[in-house]
Amino acid sequence: MSIGNILSNVRNKPSRHANVLLALLPIPPKMTGAASKDRKQRETNHEILRDLMEEIFEPLASANEHGVKITCGDGNVRLCFPRLAAWIADHMENVTLHGIVQNRCPACEEDVERLGEVVELPAKARDYSEYRRMYYRYIEGDEDAGEELRDLGVKLAPGIFWELSHVVQVDLYKPDILHVIYLGIFQTHLMKWVVGFLKKHKRLDSFDKIWMLLPPYPGFSPPNKEYSRVSQWQGKEMRNLVKVLVPSLAAALRRPNNAERIPFVTALRCVRSIVDFTLMAQYRSHSDETLQYMSDFLDDFHKYKDIFLEFRKDKATARRVREVRKRMAASHTVAQNRLRAEGASTAQRRRAGDDQRRELQDAIEAIYDDELDFNFVKIHLLSHFKDHVHRFGSIGMYSTESGESSHKQMIKEGYRRSNKNDATFQILRAYARIDNFRMHDMNAQCDPGRIHSDVEHPPEELRELGSRVAPSKNSRSSLQFVSRGALGSLPELLVDYYRRSGQRNITAEMANGFHVEEYRLLKVPIRCFQDPTEVTWHLLRCTGQRLWRTSGKARNDWVWVDTGNEELYGALRGCFPARLCAIFKVRNTVNNRVDRLVLVDRLFAESSGKPQDASGLVTVIMTGSVASTMVVSIKRILGMAHLVPESAAQDNKRWYVNNRIDLETFNRVYY
What we know:
The protein has helices at 8-11, 35-66, 91-98, 128-139, 143-151, 177-200, 204-212, 235-252, 258-281, 288-304, 315-341, 346-371, 377-381, 385-392, 401-417, 423-445, 479-482, 490-500, 508-512, 663-668; strands at residues 68-71, 77-80, 464-469, 515-528, 531-541, 558-562, 575-588, 593-602, 604-605, 618-621, 629-633, 637-640, 643-645, 654-657. The chain has 671 residues and is of the alpha+beta class. Strands 3, 4, 5, 6, 7, 8, 11 and 12 form an eight-stranded antiparallel sheet that branches.
């Protein structure tokens, strides 16, 4: 349990202990498989759960009516009337708590046959108070009331929340990104459709190869095995998948032939729209414009999702399709033999073959339209996100992710500490003890003056160099130490940098004598999107030709370089991606100053930075010319960039700029 006046960015952090453990609910026994016994078991489980909830809510019911005196943070005592405002849970828990059947919406009375359609006029909101009255009429002998409850997907049993006063039960349900989108849409459905689509067009191998080449990024760990070999997915893995799905799929579907072009574009637009909807749903604050974006993305997803309809088929549908293929193939063979016997030309037989293929495709699509649909509840729950933001605020305020993380600290750690014998009391005691100690430490360390303070310095003043590369004993600590090998033109590039900076009195001979220190790490602070009080650090690595830890290869990260002119490079808004070649500090003895610089190999945006129509991604290329290498100040480095290669070939020269890797990049690199 938590209280609503705690900031969501505090409540959603398990380390801040904003949630309190109230009770451990018993686990019901497994079903036997016998219909009569299972029905009785479900009724018993529901009665036990309802009795437990009444016991838990009894203090709250009294406080609802008479109020309770609470000492607030400012030391004043106030008479408060707490209300149950939200129940944050996954869909199956909501089904149990609200007393509805599995494939029905807990928020509205949408018909089960229309769950997969675009919602133009929202269905009537559920009225659980009316359901209560109808249920009591049913138990008094009114069969029509019971039939109406069944039609609405309501179970014929008393509700869990019916006895709580001042509770609007329909408002207790809250949309959840973790269970509805990451686990409900992507893991359970969309990725199975995508894999089926890739297998059909023989592109799964390309997708796996691109998947293994994804570069690191703050908050994203590169996968260590191919996508098709991963057997289990958790919420964190699915969240990372959403960040890289669009560019990975775009790379796998590159260069289609004429027959593949339309299906590939449609599939990309469908996946792109649901990914963009997911990212937009994570915004901490919204405007009318962003909410309209959410609606447009959801409409596009419904518009293009039929491209994956055939991958919703079950065994019976697949068997019927095979039978149609076999029957029509036999009749088409007979027709072709007859044309050949009649002396038809090759062109005539080819036209007849094209007509036969279209006839077969139409017959298969008719089967899919007749037997397949998208009527599952998770796809319908997406339609409630916009209305929820209008009424209650951002979706992230009611995330179940914090509850999942707290479950580990509250339950699992306590169980591990117990002797495994009647562990319930031991779990509660261990949690209460640990929680009290941690709350005491947080109060002792709290500085009230810093709770709402902004960052004291602008980000460009917080950049730091780290992990200095120590030269060997016999080497000169000069520019030559950095400019060996492929960096032989560094003195000229450094002179060019000083000329662009207005220091035209420095020559290459002078630069060669400058004292230089090389580094492997550049720390760049990034203000969190829509929360300027928080700063995350991008740790940019540049090992040159040295191996990075145990990876067996060098690591030279992609970075964003700011030109200072937002009119350049289209959707990139005045920035270009580049690969780090060296990080160094130069002691300029001519002007008596220290310059912190980076050497980068820049990439050039194709089509003037205009994103591709299907994927919405900007492509960049590497020219390999000397003109692409340049020296810039570390103040020009905005952070790490995430680029996905177009192909797995060693000589790849084209990358997709992944603007879905985080919200800040998504908001900045867009059109």
